[in-house]
Amino acid sequence: MNAILHAQQLTKHYPGGVALDHVDFTAQAGESIAIIGPSGSGKTTLLHCLAGILRPDAGSVTLGRQAGALDLRTLSDAELSKLRREEFGFVFQQGMLLPELTAVENVALPLMLAGTDRRTSESRAAEWLAALGLAGKERRRLGELSGGQVQRVAIARAQVTGARVVFADEPTGALDSATSSEVLDVLLRSVAANGRTLLVVTHDPNVAERCGRVVELWDGRIIADSAGLGSTAASGNYNFKGAFNV
Ligand SMILES: Nc1ncnc2c1ncn2[C@@H]1O[C@H](COP(=O)(O)OP(=O)(O)OP(=O)(O)O)[C@@H](O)[C@H]1O
C-alpha cells in the first residue's frame, strides 16, 4: 500500500469546543473515501486540515511523495498555497469558481496561475470539459450553465493541473437527485481513470455507498472506518443507511 495522506492525532478546537479530537487517518493512493457523520461532527474541519486549508492545533498531516514524505507543519502559508494549487484539487458545493469567467477560462485558471500560457491552458481546459460532457459549452459563463454543468466545470478545474488528491465537500449538495447521480458518476469516473485519490464529505448515503471506503465521524472522532472491515469494496459490509439515521 502507498499512503498519500497520513494524519496523526489531529486536534482542532474552536471557541465553542473541540472539532477534531486526536484523529488518526491514512488515505492510500487511488482510494475514494467518503467522510460522513452528523452535522457538526467535524467532517469539513478534517477535510480542511488534510488539505492544508486549516492548520490543526496539534497533530500532523503528512503527504506521501516520491521525493519523501512532506510534513505540512514545516510549510509557510505561501508554500501551503502552492502545494494546494499544484498537488490538490477542490470541488465544493459552491464558491470555488468565478462567475464572471467562462467555463473554459475557469478551468484554465489554475494552469495559468502555475505559469502555463493562456493558449495551452485553454486548450487543455477544453479537453477536460469535452471529456466531462461539456463540449460546445466552453465559452458560456457560469450563469448560462445548469447546476450540474457548473459542478462538471468544478470537477474539471480540480483535476486539470494533475492534482493527486481531490477534496470534495458536498459536491452534489445543491443538485436534484438525478443530476446529483450524473455528477457523482463524472466525479468518480474521472478520478479513477486518472488514478487520483478522492476524499468526499457528504450527507448523501448514495454518495457514500459508491465510494470504496467510508469513514464516519462523531463529535470530532472517527467512530467507524470501513477500511477496517477487511474489504476494499466497502459497500457490501458497511451499514451506510444506518449511519445517516442520526
Ligand atoms: N470557524 C469556526 N468557528 C467556530 N466554530 C466552528 C468553526 N468551524 C466549525 N466550527 C465548529 O466545529 C464543529 C465541527 O464543524 P464542521 O464544519 O467541521 O462539521 P461538519 O461535520 O462538517 O458539519 P456540517 O455537516 O454541518 O457541515 C462544529 O461544532 C462547528 O460549529
From TrEMBL:
Pinpoint the ABC transporter domain residues: 5-244
Which residues fall in a coiled-coil region? none
UniProt keyword list: ATP-binding, Nucleotide-binding, Transport
Q: Name one GO cellular component term.
A: plasma membrane
Can you provide one Gene Ontology molecular function annotated for this UniProt record?
Answer: transmembrane transporter activity
Instruction: Report the superkingdom from the record.
Output: Bacteria
Q: Does the keyword Zinc apply?
A: no
Annotated InterPro entries: AAA+_ATPase, ABC_transporter-like_ATP-bd, ABC_transpr_LolD-like, MacB-like_ATP-bd, P-loop_NTPase
Pfam families, alphabetically? ABC_tran
Question: What PANTHER family has UniProt attached to this entry?
Answer: ABC TRANSPORTER RELATED, IMPORT ATP-BINDING PROTEIN
What is the designated name of this protein? Answer: ABC transporter ATP-binding protein
> Origin organism of this chain?
Paenarthrobacter ureafaciens
